[in-house]
Amino acid sequence: MGLLVQVFKWDQRWRLLHRVDIVLRRGIKKQAVYPTKLAEVGRLVEARDDRYETGQLFLHRIFGYRGVILFPWTARVYDRDLHNPSKISASTTTTASPTQQHRTKETSLRVKANTSSPPTATTAPAGDTPTSAAYQSDAPGDAESTTNVGTTTTQVDPKEVKGKVQTFYQVLIDTRDCPHIRAQTEAVTFLGNQDSNRSLYAIPGLDYVAHEDIMPYSSSEKSPLQHELFDKFLTHAPEADPPFVGQDTLKAWQEKNHPWLDMSDVHKETTENVRITVIPFYMGCRETPASSWRYCIRLENLGELSVQLRERHWRIFSLSGTLETVRGRGVVGQEPILSPRLPAFQYSSHVSLQAPSGHMWGTFRLEREDGYSFDCKIPPFSLESKPDDLGPPTPATPSTHDKKRDDSD
């Protein structure tokens, strides 16, 4: 009897193994229909501590796309990281001198509004502009809850965050990788001068990358990157290192568009292991006295549990004396999940003020996979106007690279 029971057990195990073998064979056959193809694009080279040169090929450390460096920028990074204990020692909080307060008067402002008149609550559908600030909705079709707080006064936080100078790069993204990365591939926008309203235009495939996110590699191909501007801006020079050098067209385009491409300040803050990075850019004036900016935001999950962005809550202060509150679901019509496998998401949006300058700050409402919800701080950043006497931006190639965007984003 014991022998029969043992034989029965072995028979059951054999059937189970046979089923597993069938499942495996089916899985292999299914993969064979859609095989994964790997191809060598180049060879990684040693990372550098000093600045990379124009023409350097690279992989993005976070988003993984292939790109090439066009030219460097020098930016002052304000890293708050007050809510991540492991980062506190890395960010210095000091009381600034009067000179430093003048230089960074808006970069570390936290506004405490004292209303002199009762606040008036209004609801504006997406695409409508509030009376005090023409705010560009992140999510198209989303109804924005807008509160216009009358005349306000501001108090400067006595603790200033000391900025650190770091190198960033203007880069071209390989168009083959654009559909697969979690970042807008039209992050660079500007106000065209084709009509009286100065419509919003975008240049596809441009991005800003921090030095530490550059993973340099080399390639023997004459055109290793697929982008319409690659051959227009760069030329192959086998004897050079890197073997691609900038053409006169790149230098001329950079000089002409410097005011709209220039990045000067970067702001970072970490809450509950989620780091928010903000880079603001001045775009010019649509109509006097309204001034417009774009801002690029990256969310990065530094923890082990996945989180999902649910809501945004912005506060926009204009030096005309008004404070605007904007709430909405998600960003740019999405509620991205930041997981350990896909930890980052990047997007751009726009804002206009009826004043030459102001500042913004806010929170993102995030929900962790274990059900815990929290507000992640968006560090305050200033919106500073620049002289508009340099003429309209020059697109790289108006017929193909200058893509018109709708203001509804």
Helix-strand layout with pairing:
Layout: H1 2-33, E1 43-44, E2 57-60, E3 66-79, H2 85-88, E4 93-94, H3 98-103, E5 120-124, E6 133-135, E7 144-149, E8 160-161, E9 164-173, E10 188-191, E11 200-203, E12 206-210, E13 214-218, H4 230-233, E14 234-236, E15 244-246, H5 248-261, E16 265-271, E17 274-285, E18 291-301, E19 307-318, E20 322-329, E21 337-338, E22 344-353, E23 357-368, E24 373-384, E25 403-404
Parallel strand pairs: 3-16
Antiparallel strand pairs: 1-13, 2-3, 2-13, 3-9, 4-8, 5-7, 6-22, 7-20, 9-12, 10-11, 11-25, 14-15, 16-17, 17-18, 18-22, 19-20, 19-21, 19-23, 23-24
Written description of the protein model:
By secondary structure, this protein is mostly beta strands. The chain has one domain (43-404). 15% of the residues lie in helices and 39% in strands. The protein contains five helices and 25 strands. It has helices at 2-33, 85-88, 98-103, 230-233, 248-261; strands at 43-44, 57-60, 66-79, 93-94, 120-124, 133-135, 144-149, 160-161, 164-173, 188-191, 200-203, 206-210, 214-218, 234-236, 244-246, 265-271, 274-285, 291-301, 307-318, 322-329, 337-338, 344-353, 357-368, 373-384, 403-404. The strands form five sheets. Strands 1, 2, 3, 6, 9, 12, 13, 16, 17, 18 and 22 form an eleven-stranded mixed beta sheet that branches. Strands 5, 7, 19, 20, 21, 23 and 24 form a seven-stranded antiparallel beta sheet that branches. Strand 17 (274-285) and strand 18 (291-301) form a beta hairpin. The longest helix is centred in the first third of the chain and has 32 residues, at 2-33. The termini are far apart.
